[in-house]
Amino acid sequence: MTVQDVADVLKKDIDHVFKVLNFADKTGMTYTKDTVIHNPQVVRDIVKISGCRFKLVARPDAEMKDEENKDAVPAPPAAEEALRPRPPVVCVMGHVDHGKTTLLDALRDTAVVETEFGGITQHIGAFEVKLPSGGKVTFLDTPGHAAFTSMRSRGAHSTDIVVLVVAADDGVMEQTLESIRMAREANVPILVAINKIDKPGVNVVGLPGRSACCAGWPSTAWCASRRAARCRPCPCRRCAAGTSTRCSRPSPCRRSSCSSAPTPPDRSRASSLKHWWTLGPASRRRCWCGAGRCGAAARWWRARAGPRCALLHSPLVRKAQGGPSAGPQSQVRILRSAEGASIEEAPPSCPVVVLGWRELPAAGDLVLEVASEKRAAEVMRWRAAQRMKEKQQSDSEVIEAKMSEHQQRYRAMLSRKRAMGRYKLKPEGPREKMIKEDTHPALNVIVKGDVDGSVEAILDILDTYDDHERVRLDLVHFGVGQVTPNDLEIAEAFNAIIYAFNVECPPAVAADAKDLNISVRKHNVIYRLVDDVKQEITARIPVTQTEEVIGEANVLQEFMVSEGRRKVPVAGCRCVRGSLAKNALYKIIRGQETVFEGKLVSMKHLKEEVPTIKRDQECGLKFDDPEARVQPGDTVLCYRLRDVAPRTDWDPGF
Known about the structure:
With about 650 residues, this protein is of the alpha+beta class. About 25% of the residues lie in helices and about 30% in strands. The protein has 5 domains: about 5-50, no CATH class; about 85-290, 3-Layer(aba) Sandwich (Rossmann fold), CATH 3.40.50.300; about 295-370, Translation factors (Elongation Factor Tu (Ef-tu), domain 3), CATH 2.40.30.10; about 440-540, Translation initiation factor IF- 2, domain 3 (Rossmann fold), CATH 3.40.50; about 545-645, Elongation Factor Tu (Ef-tu), domain 3 (Beta Barrel). It has 14 helices and 32 strands. Strands 27-26-32-23-24-31-28-29 form an 8-stranded antiparallel β-sheet, with no helix packed on it. It has a 6-stranded mixed β-sheet with strand order 3-4-2-5-6-9, with helices on both faces. Strands 11, 12, 14, 15, 16 and 18 form a 6-stranded antiparallel β-sheet that branches. A hairpin with a 5-residue loop joins β15 (about 330-335) and β16. α1 crosses α2 (about 15-25) and α2 packs across α3. This is Tr-type G domain-containing protein. Belongs to the TRAFAC class translation factor GTPase superfamily. Classic translation factor GTPase family. IF-2 subfamily. Keywords: GTP-binding, Initiation factor, Nucleotide-binding, Protein biosynthesis.
């Protein structure tokens, strides 16, 4: 704004502004009425010296320019003539312990299930299977445990078809229905496989109809596409069932229309997939990808300390390519296949391990390819600026709410001062401490995991905690990788327990943790980690006391006995239940009201002091309060206080 603009706003003459400029601007610059004042501090000083308050706002006639969007976005779909076939992606889902990993072990001739902690899958696994026709199929193995909901959801949203494994002995379970719901939300067809049909007493005939009804489809929905199969002896040494159908590996390809031609059944390797059928509409998907060099999109499944395992959805990726994700950026330096071999490029639908990330991206992040590392840095700066704007917006809302609350308190205090005719109010009561000591029981935890998906699953479980009124559960830090000295510093500051899931604690860090008296709990099964957290919460719940009645007596008559120069009351009673103990606690109950609670100072039977009174014996009871009076018909309860260690009501869902 110019000098004349300042004078107009202040409603002063131009000479006044020139005089003030001699004090506000020390640079010695010569001003005219049309000189533009570029320094905002000079304008502030002019306003202050003039005795006014200032507020800088934009000019009403100023044009707001839209900020250029510098973000990287996925490429639009390619033209029909530019598409080419790609291998299908098949996601195997189902309830825990229904045999998903065992079936996949039969397909790839491995024994992954034997190496899994606790006998359950806790990570998403991806591998390729070659078909006799020369084609390939990418399989995703998802965890069936209730704790890994996010992993299953990512699997359902990044696949062409879902193979739903249902154990014949269990039928449709909770995670089975959840898998069906996720597949329907992702709009992918479902292929159902009945497993464990050789168990005694299993009824396979009615299971398809029951499964369809539980899934929300009519029982006839699966009949049109069901492929009948006859069982024969299984030569596969890994098949625990002992019987199997002919190998059904090509079936998912035909169901999803992802292979160029139907492939005949492969009899060279038997699997333990028993029956296949589809649920719901026979929706078919063409699995094509663009042949051009458009942006590469990937879904992140596993997050290790250095590499990242991705499932490619669009064009192939080669070494030296770079691209941002929702968080960090990377330049592809090393590509490895699912088997661990180094490769130069990765085609679509190929599970690969990518090395070269500066930071750890989160599972489920979308990754885009850009032209250069300079462009990737520009995208990351733009995204960081957008996140900062969102944070500033949320912070401003919080600040405005606090200012409004402060203004309300100030106006209320001001009205009280005016009503009392005082310039200063006297303090009401004692002064409050500026920092209040927190004495509420709390459990502070730090979570470290081997992969981002496992950490995410643990955090999702901790988010379900709802017993904060008794014990507060606070997550102070989490991350991927081994336990580090920085974790120990945080744990020492917050008195936290470190939970290491499937990661090691280096010997030097373990020694430091022992010296600092910091507990590092290592677990490799998620439900055991949750049980450990529940035990720590239970140990912090304050102990409560409950009354344990050990005897009951009826009052027959009240006696007044001499004790020195005064008379004191004594209750003549008969024990009608249990026994009475002199060192216990007592209550006098009259009707429905308790008129006394306290102890005894004397218990006599036939004028002799005794420690206990048995059932059907009469006695005289003198209470420690001389004002405690009894009446015939009153009930005297003898009880003890017993400490009870309560348990947490938290139900994590499994």
